[in-house]
Amino acid sequence: SKQREKKRVVFQPSEQVGVTAPLGFFDPLGICPVGDKGTFRKMRSSEIKHGRVAMMASVGLLVQSLYLVQVWGFCTVRPGMYGWTDIPAIWGFGAMVSLAGLYESVYKDEDTSKEPGDFGDPFGIGMYDVDMRNREINNGRLAMIMTTGILAAEAFTGQDAAHQLGILKPGETPQVDLLVGAIQCGVASYDDV
Questions:
Q1: Which helix (H) or strand (E) element contains residue 68?
Q2: CA distance linking residue 162 with residue 62, whole number of Å
Q3: Chain centroid offset of residue 106 CA
Q4: Cβ proximity of 88 and 77 under 8 Å
Q5: What's CA 85's distance to the chain center, in Å?
Q6: 54: which of 11, 134, 145, 161 lies 20 to 30 Å off by Cα?
Q7: CA-to-CA distance for 110 and 89, rounded, in angstroms?
Q8: What is the pLDDT of residues 129-179, one digit of tens each?
């Protein structure tokens, strides 16, 4: 009688969601080796979180450069990437980072029975499939590159996102959005900031 060898299924990162054309599985540094599902889950979870934040950041950088969004209590904060260094924005930034750190420390363990980043289908629209997951991961990757580009270009040129993209002409200032709090701040124009 011959003993049958059980085939052990080895985790293949190159066969997971997010491996799409044109790069396919891209891991030139070998961070996620074959068979190491734990490292892959950690890296994929981080990629999805950073991608989601970058998607919001890229939209926020563009909107803030088109409309002067002022919120009560933060009237003296400059628009653009250096605004977070102004008082009171630095306190708001510190509070935001602290809350994010607290959230991460409390909810650090994801449900391992689900894919990384899977928080279910809260709206019940049935769109959490492989195609939508690939789209989210790829859009997050693009947003991370785009946000880095916007910030780097603003650091080197001094132009915000709207000026970089040519939406606003040189010297043109964004509209003051009176509905979001500029009235409380007493801001009549961009030059008042």
A1: strand 67-68
A2: 6
A3: 21
A4: yes
A5: 20
A6: 11
A7: 32
A8: 889 899 999 999 999 999 999 999 999 988 888 888 888 888 777 766 544
